[in-house]
Amino acid sequence: MQSVTAMDSMRLDGNAAAGLLSEVFARDATAARATCMQCGATDSVGALHLYAHEMGAVLRCPSCEAVVLRLARTKTDVWLDATGARCLVIRLS
Ligand SMILES: [Zn+2]
Hints:
- By secondary structure, the protein is α+β, with helices and mostly antiparallel strands.
- The chain is 16% helix and 35% strand.
- A 4-stranded antiparallel sheet has the order 3-4-5-6, with no helix packed on it.
- Strand 4 (56-60) and strand 5 form a beta hairpin.
- It is globular and about 45 Å long.
- The relative contact order is 0.18.
- Zinc ion is lined by residues 36, 38-39, 41, 61, 63-64, 66.
């Protein structure tokens, strides 16, 4: 385990992750694979069950129907709640 001092020496602000984050958010997210936090099933985002409404969308696991992703759109922002996903895997090529 690294000491707090060693970890502090590696710490940058979030702006330093801009390049890596652009690889995540500039892709077709429906091809990403999402692992359900509830049951552990892994499916492409495009295979999740979509429940859309005026404010956004809820994407549910096709195996257990737990909410995996929530999207909401306002006039100025798009909100993404991925707390129902254990992880999202986005293929680079
Ligand atoms: Zn599930």
